[in-house]
Amino acid sequence: MDADQTLMTLIDRVAQRDELALKALYDLTSGKLYGLALRVLGKNEWAEDALQDSFLQIWRNAPDYRASLSPPMAWLGLIVRSRSLDLLRRRKADREHLRDEIDDDMADTLAGDSPNPMDTSLASQQAWALHQCLGRLENKQREVVSLAYLRDLSHGELSEQLKLPLGTVKTWIRRGLDQLRICMARFA
């Protein structure tokens, strides 16, 4: 059985409230998911909290998982990312003024939206690859994916802001992420 199939089977068992399946799912995925939480949050303790919250949400939401809509690690990763961002918002609420100062400094530092050759050479290989892959998306998909992930807008907020049906927004995001995953695999 391949890795995706194993994870889908475990998620199905978790949906049936199989605690051993949740433990097995945790054992198989917690390392990668913890890494994702740590990248978002930057602190070990916060990443541990986010991972714990994520597995509680996985326990609750496993019956809603649809393999036809998302690979299992992508679904798990979205939950961890969402929980991490929620935790980050809660933890950083009292430091709002610092974020504003950093935003102002960044606006002064960055001359424009498009990277110049020096920016590209200084950027990590992965960031450069992501930029290349985003450039290959259709304009509408790139806009929706960018708004969803860089500005952290929900599907509903995107639908309202872009005046598009919710289903269209979800489809564009899913297709855009599929294309990004395939493109990024070439750079790995």
Provide structural commentary.
- Helix 1 (about 5-15) crosses helix 2, helix 2 (about 20-40) packs across helix 3 and helix 7 packs across helix 10 (about 165-185).
- The chain has helices at about 5-15, 20-40, 45-60, 70-90, 95-110, 115-120, 125-135, 140-150, 155-160, 165-185.
- The radius of gyration is 18 Å and the shape is globular.
- The chain has about 190 residues and is mostly helical.
- The relative contact order is 0.08.
- Uncertain runs: none
Count of discrete alpha- or pi-helical segments spanning 4 or more residues: 10
* Helix/strand class: mainly alpha
Distance between the termini: 24 Å
Beta-strand segment tally = 0
Q: Report helical residue fraction.
A: over 70%
Largest sheet, in brief, is: none
Radius of gyration: 18 Å
Query: Averaging pLDDT over every residue, what do you get?
Result: 84
Estimate what percentage of residues fall within beta strands.
under 5%
Name the shape in a single word. Answer: globular
What pattern of helices and strands is seen along the backbone?
Answer: HHHHHHHHHH
Summarize the structure.
This protein is mostly helical and 188 residues long.
Task: Describe the SSE topology.
Layout: H1 3-15, H2 19-41, H3 44-61, H4 72-92, H5 96-109, H6 117-122, H7 125-136, H8 139-150, H9 155-162, H10 166-187
Which key terms come to mind for this protein?
10 helices; 188 residues; globular; mainly alpha
